[in-house]
Amino acid sequence: MASAKNQNSPAAARRAKLEEARRKERARERRSRIITITAAVAVLAGLVAGGGYLMSAADEKDKAEDQARTSPVTGEKSWDDLTQDHVETPVDYPMNPPVGGNHDPVWMNCDADVYTEAIPNENAVHSLEHGAVWVTYNDKAPDADVKALAERVGKTPYSLMSPVADQKDPLMLSAWGKQLTVKSATDARVAQFFTKYVQGAQTPEPGAACSGGVAK
């Protein structure tokens, strides 16, 4: 049995102090592990929840796009049995802007191209044959709408935009065999027209180039 002297010796005091320090360190380590595990579980739960939200949002977006593609565009005009011959002479189209028919052998660049001057109809029609949407406007179109539509075209491959001074309405959208008049860039049919007809089912030559043609 240790004597009281040994128990109260400096060495015993140091051992007791060291043991107490070790006990406190183990306690801190346990608390740290608990906090780390709790945080990891919270992060994982957040990732699972966030992933579920993103997947749900993506599913909703896909459903909306599918509906836009399969639903008719209210107010659009359609033309069938359009000719597709390549010609090097001016073409007298029955609609303005034209939505199809004989056209120039070279397409107008339509890789998100915004033209501030008029472009040849015959080249633009070739772009429509490749699956482009053509946005046109006249001098009655509000500047804010022209700017907003230009921004949309500038972000959308297989689209182009240009002024057509003598078109009947201020803002018009055309695809091969399809045409729509809208009152403003915020019209919900604008987004639907792009979703439905950019490289849409109406395209005679899907996948054909929209660059490497005529640029102005």
Task: Looking at this protein, list some descriptive labels.
single chain; 216 residues; alpha/beta; Glutaredoxin; 2 domains; 6-stranded mixed beta sheet; 6 strands; disordered N terminus; transmembrane; transmembrane helix
Strand content: 5-15%
Spell the H/E element sequence. HHEEHEHEEEH
Count up the helices.
5
**Sheet with the most strands?**
6 strands, mixed
Low-pLDDT segments: 1-5
**How are the strands ordered across the major sheet?**
1-6-5-3-4-2
Q: Tell me how many strands there are.
A: 6
**Residues in helix, %:** 40-55%
Number of domains: 2
User: What is the C-level CATH assignment of the largest domain?
Assistant: Alpha Beta
Broad structural category? alpha/beta
Give your account of this protein's structure.
Strand 3, helix 4 (143-154) and strand 4 (159-163) form a beta-alpha-beta unit. Helix content is 44%, strand content 12%. Strands 1-6-5-3-4-2 form a six-stranded mixed beta sheet. The protein has two domains: 4-70; 77-197, Glutaredoxin (3-Layer(aba) Sandwich). The chain starts with a helix and ends in a 19-residue tail after the last helix. The protein is built from five helices and six strands, in the order H-H-E-E-H-E-H-E-E-E-H. The protein is an alpha/beta fold and 216 residues long.
